[in-house]
Structures are given as C-alpha cells and as structure tokens.
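Extended Data, panel c. Modelled sequence:
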Amino acid sequence: MASFEKARFTIAIPVEKAMGDIIALYQTMTGAFVLMPSHDWADVLSDPGYSADPEIMEFLYDQGFLVKKDTQEIAIFECWRQQHVHDFSTITSKVLVTRKCNNRCRYCILDPELKEMSPETARAMDEFYITMLEEKNPGEVKDDYLGGEPLLNAKIIQESAARRFYYCQGKGIKYGFTITTNGTLIRPSVISQMKQVGLTGVRVSMAGPASVHDHLRPSKNNGKTYGLIMENLQSVSGLTSITIECQYDSGAIDYRRIPEMLDEFKERNILVEDVNFTPILPTRRDSPHDSGMGDPQIALWLMKEAGKRGYAKDREAPSNRCMADLRSKFVFDTDGSIIPCPSLQGGEMAYGHVSKGVDFVSEAQLLKRNLGDRCLNECELLPICTGGCRLQALIKQKDFAGIDCHYDTYRVFLEDYIREKASAALVDEENTAIKRAA
C-alpha cells in the first residue's frame, strides 16, 4: 500500500463539538473542506501507512489532504497556478474611462490626472476586446468601469458597454458590468439606461458615518459628500444592486463607528446587497494614513458587525492574489494603453495598446514573480496569496515583481473562515438529524 503524508497545503483546525472533538481540514490550493473525528486524523498523522479504514485514506488523498510520500508538491502548485494564469473561461476587464475626479480623498492611491477616454479610443478598445473574446470564447464576461470618477464620463460607459453587451448576447456569452464610483453622481435615469446594456450593480466607496466619511472623502472643494451619496443611494435603491466598498484606517479608532453607517442604510431603506471592508493602504507619497493592514481583528470585527445586520452573508475564503498575475484580466487606460493594475498612474507599465495588441514579451516579463524560498517551499498559504499585491510590493520595495507578504493576517482570516464554515456545516448536520428523527 502507498505511504501517505499530510499535504503541504492542508490546514487542520480543531473544532469542539458536544459529541466529541473534530478537526476541520481545508486545502488552500483546491478549496476542499471536510470535518472528521480528531482521533482519526491523529491516527493518520501518526502512521503514514495507516490502513484501518482504507476508504478514509482514499478520500483524504482524492481531496488533496494527503499526498503520496516524496511527492513534489511545488510542481503540482506550479501546474495549478499556470492553469489559473491561462484560464479564459471567464474574462474580466477594468476600464479607466477617466482619471478626473470630483473628490479629493485624503488617502487616494492615485493622483488625479486631466485625462479621459475619447469615443475613438473607446471604439478601438472594444474592437480589440471583442476580437480577443472571439479568440478565447469565454463562458462569461465581467467588466468594471472606474476612474477617477467614472460617471464624469458616463456616455463612454454607456456606448462601450452596449458594444460588449450586444456582442456577448449574440454569442450566448453571459455578460454583466459594474461601476466603481464615489457615489456623488449616481442618477436613476443613468442607472436605468445602463441596465439595458448589462449593468449588474454599482460599487460605492465609503468610509463610515458622516463625520468620518466627510473628513476622509471630501469633494475637491473640501465639501461634504456623505449626505449626497446617501440621497443618491436612496434614489436607486431597488433599481440596481448596491455594494459598499468601505475603507477604514487601521491606525485610528474611527473604524468602530462604521456600524453607524450600516444602521443608517437600514433607517433610510437603502437595499445594500453586500459590504466589503478594506484597510487604507500605503501610497507612493507621504500620507498620514499609512498603517496598512493593521490588526486583522479589526476586519473580522467589522465583518461580524455587518453579518449581524444581514450583510456579508456569502463569505468567501480570504485571498491576497493579484489580478496582474492572470492573463484573463485586462486593465484599459484612458489612452488605450493596456496596463497591469488600475491603481497605476496613466500609461504606467503598459504592456500593449488597443491599437496594436499585447506585447507578449512585455507581458511575459510582468507575469514573473520573485517568490522566495519560504514562499515556494514552506508557506501553506501560497495558493491564496501567490505573492500578494504587486502595487504594494512596488510601493514598499520598488519592485512590481516583489512580494507583499501578510502571512500572519491571512492565517488569522483563514482560520476564522474555516471555523465559521465548520460551524455552519455542524448546524446543517444537526438540523438534518432532527428532521430524520421527526
């Protein structure tokens, strides 16, 4: 019989249960999850040739929790990674229709630029994009229009989305797009028009209740924006899906007031589908908001508070992967440049142009990551990170191919996710048992 050992990417978290201790197993590469008695897992670990129950061993091996002894797991990871890098079953894009902005957020990672996409550039972009869709034949296309403030150039969004929508509709490809906006220019008439060509929702950036938000995200004239955004959200509530992208300063205590904003959504009858929390990250210029990820317990607390109010219900496994590592994700700049990250300045690190296509030599160089020995040979979180955010590596190390490691933070996030998943599974199991008994 083959000798097995625990797979490197297997994480085992003890979970207490009334009828006895159990172990939650999670595989960070495949996403496999299972609960099993602690004593069975201990037997497996203590005896690599354990065969008291061959079915258990076969199941654990099939799910990736065990590997055959001397398996080269880094080779398996690299094969898995390349499959993701070159997976075009879903193609996504982020389109910078403008770099102008009517806000002056105190922590913005970008400097406003007086650039916006012209109709001619937008047509050339969509010709390139549709040609690529014809070649790759994806099952789904998901786009995001952003800026600056994208609704300053709403006409380009409408026209570009229409071209993509009707092409995909004709080919039987599922299509949808979102707008990432500061919320100050949302109008029901604009939303209604865009819904006709595939708008699935708006993603609105906010920072907490009025006093917190207005300090961090003022208008370019240093005016208040919170009240206007709330009124705008009320006007489109129920007309389209609303997701709140909530940024917080991990170095301040203002984050504790964010639930006030969540409560106000309820008070105003604003139908918010989801709330995502992101710490304010360092920029390439001096900023008082440079605490970065901070204490992971802040993010967990915010997620729990959102959960109490009915938000953040469909939690996914934590991930620190960078979109610049995947060939199926495109970023189109205002001038038609193809750049690896929407948080770069205009034309920065372009590896192609919509009029000429992708420079594959430049793209291949960008896809390289300087993964260190610990990443490659020790870290069990490598599949949910693959090196982390390239922009933060550029900011901290001046190396876009560098590593943005937040091991301790993502280990905390992942363990909490596994425990929550285990609790839900146990509740389902108990409910099933009750139904059977009835």
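The chain has 15 helices and 15 strands. This feature is highlighted in the accompanying rendering.
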